[in-house]
From TrEMBL:
This is Probable DNA 3'-5' helicase RecG. It comes from Blastococcus saxobsidens (strain DD2). PROSITE patterns: HELICASE_ATP_BIND_1 (PS51192), HELICASE_CTER (PS51194). GO terms for biological process: DNA repair. CDD domains: DEXHc_RecG (cd17992), RecG_wedge_OBF (cd04488).
Length: 732
């Protein structure tokens, strides 16, 4: 390469136009930086690996294999010939099929790389017309001779070996690379943590000789990712700390004191401590950015309500955003009930010293909606309850002082930016989640939030015991499950039965309601029966094992009014058994409910199951959670369910969730090969590295706020910012 190439050079200037276009369009690789940071997914070893044994029908894969046999015969029903090639590696075999094949080089014993979508014909896995690259003698003195052949995330248009060749072109003989890439990591940081220089790391990750090369290179490259991410987050924290907000100091004798007096229980130690933390932060004139994590049922709502009351007392408004309308309605009901006349200021029986609690959801009729919006805009509504969409809909507030986001793990950076962009002084923000956040996630995805934790559950809770009901192995257990449910109802309790799907009223398009379901590796399989549906299960239960009980359904296809009516009836005990989709997943609070039966439990994610289980035993009665599945106990799925049943420790389950999701990632996102800025860093495995990078980022910004002395790092941070950063930050 003679022209001056930098990391920002467009690939179109260094590669052929077809390759460059393909890389841009199908892999999102536009610049030299992108390509150099497009790391191999794995490395194949000639003759040793067992790729072929593992591939699944439908996967798009690249394999390194050796030709075992080649047979060509005329086709029976058509003109032309059919060539069948059997290739194998150390562990498996696969058939390649070509019509009218003319590749003379496909000879027995030849090695090659084959890429395509795995199909199946008469029970045998095969590739029809795969892309391939046969390794010939002239390759032997290049990368092919190496023990480890890099396999890149590739696409239909750009194969792994084309990427390999292009990277080799960029890396040159190795000598040119050092000038091309300036190492963004300061020397001291490298020395302190024993990290390879960038050029060496890139060489080793793309053209390793040993697996130790790969490990050392990965470690160094993970540092780039971690440090860049932590610098971004630290910069945000700093910017946030400089932002002007409005102090909302505590005022004695106001709504907050009234709430405290009205509470039917004593606050737990944790609720009190977090309350103090929030009270102090609301009193500062920088906007609060805080995450409140607390086990399901730990009583986050009242903590939020007290913060909202403080803001109202200081003359501002508070918005409480829930993930569903059902939950928004429940919150509004609960808060109104607790405030009594204090929540009805302006009404005949209202207390003029109080405020109004206004529910503002998409399902309000036009007139009611206008009234509600006016109350909000004119500031008469001190407490506004709605769904997460509320802020996107451009509702005007007179003086929004606090936004509480309930049960939203993904209320991330962008939404907070949007709040800030609304003009005026940004409100304080409190995000609440019952999904405990592992430390690494807290340091990354939520890295610019302060975190409070409610560890303790209010005392006197009965606790939930959970069991897996494996219907295939133990057909009798399901009958016993319904018996147990009947016993609870007979004792005056109530139950939920949750199914993954609504059912066949409209036929196709009846998607599972949740976005996060089970990991990808289990979702796309065509050989499974469709998930159980609320409507079918309700009918079967009514006619069978639960005949005579008062049973009703709740799902996303009902109108908001219908949903609300059912929720009320369930809350007041007029319904014994609620057969529902995951609309009841979060937040729903009916203390008398003690049984949760999850049908097709394997279709739900770990955190979801934990959330669902959190719907029962919210009062003093002990609860029972039954995870019904036809997955064998010994399968990974069965074991995942067993793990959920075995522990009620949300932190442990959050970790498990992360692990299973990552499996999904490996097979899903990574398979598609799209570029993303964070490739190597693992939230599960790299806790120590992330935490060291966090400390380094903090120190760096302390002495070099704008990264003026570290242009390489500044460039990395800028690249992350323009990247699919948001996507990653919002993920997990
Ligand atoms: P979550 O943290 O899951 O959102 P909630 O705020 O819905 O939990 O509270 C769960 C239940 O516990 C509610 O019925 C609530 O009224 C009750 N609760 C909250 N705090 C206490 C407490 N200190 N003592 C007893 N019950 C409480
Ligand atoms: Mg809640």
């Amino acid at each position: 390469m003679t022209m001056a190439v930098t990391l920002e050079t467009p690939l179109a200037r260094v590669l052929g136009p077809k390759t460059a276009t393909g890389m841009a369009e199908t892999l999102g690789l536009h610049t030299v930086r992108h390509l150099l940071r497009h790391y191999p997914r794995r490395y194949a070893r000639r003759g040793e690996q067992a790729d072929l044994a593992d591939v699944q029908v439908g996967d798009r894969v690249t394999v390194l294999a050796q030709v075992r046999s080649v047979t060509t015969r005329p086709m029976r029903n058509r003109r032309g010939s059919l060539t069948e090639v059997v290739v194998g590696d150390g562990g498996g075999r696969m058939k390649l099929v070509f019509f009218n094949h003319r590749h003379g080089q496909l000879k027995v014993n030849a090695w090659g790389m084959f890429a395509g979508t795995v199909g199946e014909y008469r029970g045998e896995k095969q590739f029809a017309h795969p892309d391939m690259h046969l390794i010939d003698a002239s390759d032997e003195d290049t990368d092919w001779a190496r023990a480890l052949v890099p396999i890149y995330p590739a696409s239909k248009d750009v194969s792994s070996w084309v990427i390999q060749k292009s990277v080799r072109l960029l890396l040159g003989a190795g000598g040119g690379l050092a000038e091309l890439v300036e190492d963004p990591l300061p020397e001291e940081i490298r020395a302190r943590h024993g990290l390879l220089p960038l050029a060496a790391a890139l060489l080793d990750i793309h053209r390793p000789t040993t697996t130790e090369d790969v490990e050392r290179a990965e470690h160094r490259l993970k540092w780039d990712e971690a440090l860049t991410l932590q610098l971004t987050l630290a910069a945000r924290r700093r910017a946030a700390a400089l932002e002007p907000g409005t102090a909302r100091p505590r005022r004695p004798g106001g709504l907050l004191d009234a709430v405290d007096a009205a509470l039917p229980f004593a606050l737990t130690e944790g609720q009190r401590a977090v309350g103090e933390e929030l009270a102090a932060e609301l009193d500062r004139d920088q906007p609060m950015h805080r995450l409140l994590q607390g086990e399901v049922g730990s009583g986050k709502t009242v903590v939020a309500l007290r913060a909202m009351a403080q803001v109202v007392d200081a003359g501002g408004q508070a918005a409480l955003l829930a993930p569903t309308e059902v939950l928004a309605a429940q919150h509004a009901r609960g808060i109104r009930q607790l405030l009594g006349p204090l929540g009805r200021a302006g009404e005949i029986d209202g207390d003029p010293a109080g405020t109004r609690v206004t529910l503002l959801t998409g399902s309000l009729k036009a007139a009611a909606r206008r009234t509600a919006r006016a109350e909000v805009a004119e500031g008469r509504a001190g407490i506004v309850v709605g769904t997460h969409a509320l802020l996107q809909e451009g509702v005007e507030f007179a003086d929004l002082g606090l936004v509480v986001v309930d049960e939203q793990h993904r209320f991330g950076v962008e939404q907070r930016d949007a709040l800030r962009a609304k003009g005026g002084r940004p409100p304080h923000v409190l995000v609440m989640t019952a999904t405990p956040i592992p430390r690494t996630v807290a340091m990354t995805v939520y890295g610019d939030l302060e975190i409070s934790t409610l560890r303790q559950l209010p005392s006197g809770r009965g606790g939930v015991s959970s069991s897996v009901v494996p219907v295939v192995e133990r057909p009798g257990w399901i009958d016993r499950a319904w018996e147990r449910l009947r016993e609870e109802v007979a004792a005056g309790r109530q139950a939920y039965v949750v199914c993954p799907r609504i059912g066949d009223v409209t036929g196709p398009g009846d998607e599972p309601e949740d976005a996060d379901g089970a990991p990808d590796d289990e979702q796309g399989r065509s050989d499974r029966r469709p998930p159980l549906a609320v409507l079918d299960v309700a009918e079967a239960l009514r006619a069978g094992p639960l005949a005579g009980l008062r049973l009703d359904v709740l799902h996303g296809r009902m109108t908001p009014d219908e949903k609300d009516a059912v929720m009320r009836a369930f809350a007041t005990g007029e319904i014994d058994v609620l057969v529902a989709t995951t609309v009841v997943e979060v937040g729903v609070d009916v203390p008398n409910a003690t049984v949760m039966v999850v049908m097709d439990a394997d279709r739900f994610g770990v955190s979801q199951l934990h959330q669902l289980r959190g719907r029962v035993a919210r009062g003093t009665h002990a609860g029972l959670c039954l995870l019904v599945t036809d997955a064998p106990s010994a399968s990974p799925t069965g074991q995942r369910l067993a793990a959920v049943a075995a522990t009620s420790d949300g932190f442990e389950l959050a970790r498990l969730d992360l692990e299973t999701r990552r499996e999904g990632d490996v097979l899903g996102a990574a398979q598609s090969g799209r570029r993303s800025a964070i490739k190597l860093l693992s939230l599960l495995e790299d806790e120590e590295l992330i935490s060291q990078a966090r400390a380094e980022a903090h120190a760096l910004l302390g002495t070099d706020r704008g990264l003026a002395d570290h242009p390489g790092l500044a460039a990395e941070v800028a690249a992350l910012a323009t990247d699919e950063r948001a996507q990653w930050l919002e993920k997990a």
